[in-house]
Amino acid sequence: MATEVIKIVDPDNGSGTNYTSLSAWEAGEQGDLTGARDEIAVAKCRCTGGTADDGSVEIAGWTTDSTRYIKIWTDPSESYRHSGKYSSTKYRLGTKVSTDTYHISITEDFVRIDGLQFYRRTDGGAYSCVYMGFDRTQITDIRISCCVFYQAETHASYSIVAIDYTSSDHLRALVCNNVFIDFNDSSGKAIRAGNWYIDSDNTPWCIFNNTFKNCNGIVSAHDNAALAINNIFYSCTTPCSGVFASGTGYNSTDESSIGYTVTGGATADRVSQTFSFVDASGDDFHLQSTDGGARGYGLNLYNHATYPIQTDIDGQDRGGSGASWDIGADEYVAAGNPYYAYAQQ
Amino acid sequence: MAQILVKAIDATHADPVKDRRGCYKRGMPVVVMPDTHTWGLDERPPKFVVLKLPGVPVEKVKKYIEPEREDTADADGRYQVFLRRLWKFRLDDMPTAALRKLRDNGELIIKVGDYADKYDYTWTQVRSYLRNLKTKTDETASL
Predict the structure, then answer these.
(1) Which residues of B touch A19 (CB under 8 A)?
(2) CB B81 within 8 A of CB B28
C-alpha cells in the first residue's frame, strides 16, 4: 500500500515548513510515484501568518496512478482552511498577479485538490483558476472538492473560466462541494467540462453539489460531457448550456430555466426557487434552516457508482445513504448534531 | 529585492515529451521571492540552491521563471508549454569556487548596481552562465 508523504507548504515559513510555495513543492517533489517511491505525494497547505501563496503552479512531469496520486489540500483539522466562504486570511492562491494564465495547471492523470481558495484576478486575458491540459491517453481521476473560486475583477469582455480543460483531452473528473462566485464574463464561465473521448470512455465529468452565484455556471463542451447533480445556481442568468449526460438533475435555480438539454430528460430540477442563505450579500452560501429552495431536495449520492460522496464543503456528514440530501455545497446540520460540533472546529 | 530558487538536481520522466515539458532540470529557476523571504527546510541543497540579488526588484527577474511556450496556439487558442523553463543557469560551467559555495552554503550573493555589502560575484559575471534555451545564447542584459 502506498505511503502518504506529507510536506508542509507555508508562505509564512512557520515551524516545520518544507516549502514556502506550492510551486517550489511541485518542483522539489516531482517524479515517479508509482515506482520505488510507491507514494501518495501530499502538499499540506498552511498560511501561519495569513500570507497568500502566489505564483502559477504547473503539475507536470510526474508519473501517477489510481492509488499513487498527488494530493494538494488544507487539512480541515488545522486552522488554515476556509469555513465554506472566501476568507482573506486562509490559504489561498492568486491574489497578487492578474496575468497568470492559471493558478494550477494539471497535466498529470491522478490529482486531488481539496479545500483551497482561488482568487482570480485578471487584466482581460483568457485565464483560469484550474486548467487541465493536455494530450492524455489514459482514463484520469482528477478530483476538485471543497474549494472556493472567486473572480475578483469582472468585465463584459473578459473570459475567465474557473475550471477549464483543453479540447484534445481524455478526462474524467469529479468537481464537488465547491463554491463559485462571479464567473460571469461574456465568454467566461465557472466550469467548462469535456471528455473528448466520451464515446469510448463514456464517463462524463461528475459535477455534484456545488453552489454557483452570479456565474455562467456549467458548459458541457460537447454532448454528454457533464453529469450535473445537486447544484445551486443562484443569480446565474445562464446556469448551464450544452447537452448534459443522462442522469443529470436535482439542480435548483432562482431563474426560470436551468438552460441545458439533458439526454433522456432532466429529473427533479427546481426552477424559480427562493433560497435562504446565511448571508448571500456577504457570499456566505450556507443554507439556513428556513430554506425552501434546496434543503432536502437533493439526490443522495452516498453510493454513487462513479464518485460516491458523503460530506459537504465543511466536512459535515450529509446523513448517510438513507438521508434526504440538500442541494448545493452546504448540507444544513442543526446545532447539537455531533457533526455540527466537528465542523465548527 | 529578489532571490531566485534554482533547481539543483534533475527530475526525469520516461516519456521524452513529458520530460521536456514537465521536468525541472538542474539549473532551472523555479520561483522568485523578495530579499526578506526565508526558505523552507527542503528549499536548499541537495534539491535547490538560491541566488540572491539584493536590491533588485522581483519583477525584474520574473522573466527567468517563465516556461518556453509553443510557437503556435492550440485549438483553444492557448500556447502550451514546450519546455519547463526558457532559462537555465549553467551551474556545472560555473567556477569551482562558486560550485563549492553553492554546495556548502546553498546560496550565492550577486552584486547588482550600487549594492555595497558583501557579495560573491557580480551580475555581469553570473549572467554569462544564464542560458536562454530557445536562442542558445547567454544573458547579456543588465538588471
Answers:
(1) 40, 42-43
(2) no
